[in-house]
Specification:
The structure is a homodimer.
Chain A lengths: L7 H29 L3 H12 L4 E3 H8 L3 H13 L3 E4 L9 E4 L1 H21 L6 H19 L23
Antiparallel strand pairs in A: 1-3, 2-3
């Protein structure tokens, strides 16, 4: 198969995107690390739980919401549980049905961190964009996500981190 | 200061972006890990060196191009040097001027990996976008990068990973 190399326009877009997301992720991670010794992922776990009914989610659903592997989620949840920010409840009749529940302490930590986190996201991203660009950003990345999840059946489970049985590398 | 929370439009855009970049980065990393046991960053180091004059770059310039901290770059370069894909040359009169040079083996590895990598980027991102969206993606993230680097003097060095003396967390 002939390689379909990127066009000059695609190359420019790709470089801008990679540079931008690395700087953005670095700024977000650094702010949360400085304020609470917590990487972005841990904050997202607490935030997703806080928005769920009764502040609880099955681990499999949480991994899907966060677009990460279950093994990576399990590692993070173990750390957050040790800090008392969430607790796990095992499901007696379904071993895979383990549930993560936000604790009051976790909700308190999240409420303390949210203003600084939002300010970082706003200063680094949204303050730089016009309302039209905010809409474009949503459309572009909604397209990307749909490319992975499909409109249902056609998605390849291997491309979905939360459906993968195990990871070929320890990083994920 | 009153927190400037995200508007509903910004929230939707933020969620789509975070989900999209996590899936994109996962797909790219997985393809490179499966093919060469190499994370995305290592590939980027080889690619940037391959495009430099004489396939060599000062470590400080390489860190700036990649938007990462020098300590993270040093770690990656040490691994790549062990595999023979690049070599380091110390600068006798400037300790900070250490230079990374792509080896023939490194160029060979890159040439072998490039088609699969580009195909992954294309399938996950560019095949999903219209030409207008490619232009929008470039503009949005160019704005984001400029927000960090400024048009020169106004940039805060703390926000630039490659200018930071040391990192508060081991992750970067």
């Amino acid at each position: 198969m002939t390689t379909r190399w990127l066009t000059p326009e695609e190359q420019r877009a790709w470089r801008a995107y990679v540079a931008g997301y690395l700087l953005l992720e670095d700024a977000i991670d650094r702010q949360l690390q400085q304020e609470a010794g917590m990487p972005h992922l841990y904050y997202s776990i607490l935030a997703n739980l806080s928005e769920a009914a009764e502040q609880r989610l099955r681990m499999t659903d949480l991994a899907e919401q966060l677009k990460i592997t279950r093994s990576r989620l399990t590692y993070a949840v173990t750390r957050l549980e040790k800090d008392g920010l969430l607790r796990r409840e095992e499901c007696r009749w379904d071993k895979r049905g383990s549930i993560a529940v936000l604790t009051e302490e976790g909700m308190g930590a999240l409420e303390g961190l949210a203003p600084g986190h939002v300010e970082t996201v706003r200063a680094a991203l949204f303050d730089r964009l016009t309302p039209e660009q905010v809409g474009q950003l949503e459309e572009i990345f909604t397209q990307v996500v749909l490319g992975f999840t499909g409109d249902g059946e056609e998605a390849s489970p291997e491309g979905l981190p939360w459906r993968r049985r195990s990871s070929p590398c320890s990083g994920s």
